[in-house]
Amino acid sequence: MWRLNRVRHKAGRQVGSSEEVRLKRREHERALRQARRDRQLVSKRLLLNEDEEQPEVIMDTMSGEQDVVSLLHKLQHSGPERETHLRALSNALRGPSAQLSFIKQENSMHLLVSLLTGSNAQCRLHAVRCLHELSHSPHTNVAPACLPATPYLLTYLSGQSTKFTELCLYTLGNLFPDSDIVKEKLLAQGIIPALASCLENQRHNLSVVEAVGFTLSQLLQAKDAAEKIIPQVLASSLPSQLLSVLTPDPNFGLAPAIECAWCLHYLACSEDNRELLARGALLQCSSLLLSLGDAVAEGKKEEGMELLVCPVLRCVGNLLSLCPVDSLSTQVGDVRLVAAVCVLLQAYPHTQPALARESAWVLNNLTAASSDFCSALLSLNLVPGLIQLLPFSQGINTMVLRVLANIAHKKKKFCVQLAQLGLVSTLCATLKMADQEMVTLSLEVLFLLVLSTQQVADEFVRLGGVSLLEAIQYNSEGEMRRRAAYLLEHHLLTHSSDLTVDNVL
Amino acid sequence: MKPAGKCPTEDSGEPEQRETETPFSFTPQLARLHKDHELFEDGDIHRHMYLQDLYISQEDEPTTSVSEFACHISGCSAVFSALEEYEHHYNSLHRHVCCSCRRSLPSARLLDIHIQEWHDSLFTVLAQRQDMYQCLVEGCGHKFRTSNHRKEHLIKIHKYPPDFRFDKTKKDRGTRETKRPPQKDIAMEEVGDVCESEGVCEVMCDVLSEQPEPGESMETLVEEAAAHLTKAADAGEDAGLSAAVHSQECPNKDTLKPQYSYRVPSTVCFGHGSIRGFRGRRGRRK
């Protein structure tokens, strides 16, 4: 069962009616989309305390700020109450204005760091909790204020206390994107090697693995990651580590695999992903995709599975684009991968069209260069399912049609098989679609089919295709007109003169 | 998509018979997508919603959408969600269109009659001497000296309404003709202004099949006119008609008629009203 329950990352409070909630969600989504377009998409995570069911409702008022000031004052004196004050401080620091107030106080960070590194283990834990709350601040000037603590956070990554390590990791992951100064310092302080050795030593500890994955993903999403971060990561042991934890643990759930998969996706997107290929990333991701596809096919679609499917699909898609054709079979392994991708493609067009679209993209990359995969699609009888997807818009049908075109482009034999599966009559429908790319692609596919056998041309004419193409000649798009005209002139009309009136009907 | 593609080679045993110059350009292409690619947007948003703990299982929010169909005729911006709607639209509004006045008629027969009576100067001449106005009801066969006579016949005998939409006289056109803007560069003009005046004929429907006529080769307008003269049908057309043909300029000849000849669709005309008049010579298809 997925760990959504266990690690309650700032559980959403159901304030207001469900309609209000949905509206807020949609607004939030819109904001995220805009942020992505501005290349500013950044998220932070907040670990709740173990005894918390829901985060306490924080009154972000003057009292919070005053609490901070008075608590700081009290913390100056050592004594058994320090723990209590520190704990209270961490609660107070959940409020954004309290956070600002904290960093304004003189020597506040200095004090916190000394508690972080002191001899009292409980105080250390509460201190890191304070830092964690600070790292989650929406104000970007808080992060630089936390810089004095970061060398220690990095050092503690090699420790053994799970909760403590997790808090350090999430804190670092939250701080990293906030400012360039922070990025620079953390990189200089060796965050990448620290993450690598942490992952190596704590592979058995899946909550730590999840935290490392999250933090690394924050690094990899930085705008200048390609120059400064990715080469270093690729040179380290991190890629192999990530690959080795990719298979989700059935007890623990999907979360660690999800984080690691997203890291691999960011790496695979880079210019330099041959490193990944060399380490067997394509093979690993392909076999994971196969098992995910099998799970979906058997009806065992876990909640949140698409969060894992998505990055793995992307890895496979991008790694395929760089994989030399002749080593494709060794790198991918099982040709049945196409079946898995088709299963995923068909599982999601209604609920997650984006995922269906990405699956279709992977199929395109599988079929573009390799005859074997095209042949497999046909022999495994997957094409009818693909044809059924052609009504779906949002980029799904254009990509699927591209896949069919890839198949047709390979061999005349494939064209014949495609025609036998009813593609010609489907094209009669797609040629009428509003999407120009669909129409143009349909004409291309039709051309390939018509070239293969006479029967295709006959069938098309029989289905009323000629008048359809003639109508296209009145389309405002020259690309379509030229193709339609060519087909009519060279392939359809020259032969239709041989038919008698009786045959036509 | 950023093509990083390799062109697969065809089987050596199956040589391509493609000419070197075709308008077709498809080749399979590998596509590598960078992390900010728009294809990835939805997935990224979903991921970040999860990170910010706004994840919900998508089962309750289906967002499927289906491709729409659209009329190809340039200038017609009609869009449909179902294939049948498209077919109906096309058959109703684009099949039988008079190219001179862009009226859409519901059937080929009514279109023929329309062209004859409105745009054929020979008809006007002949109608002074003989009964030329055909009854609109298929199979009736009666002809009348004036359109009013025909209208009376339709009302009295065939129980038509007095304001039957497909029996407008030329005079009824009124200001519509004078307001016509100069012919644009596209063959099929805005269908919008046709829709206002015509409806669907309910009484009779002789929607002919869409099948192209076999055995037709491509001819230019001039040649067709000449051919027509030799195969003059029962209407008694003479050289006067061909004069009418030549005098009407086809404005779109250069823009849409391509350099190589192609079949004039029997059901879609472009820019030249009198072509419709030629249909008579091929005989009615039943």
TrEMBL record, chain B:
Xref: InterPro entries: ZNF511 (IPR039258), Znf_C2H2_type (IPR013087)
Residue span of region Disordered: 1-25
Signal peptide: none
Superkingdom: Eukaryota
The C2H2-type domain, residue ranges: 71-94, 135-158
Protein name per its UniProtKB record: C2H2-type domain-containing protein
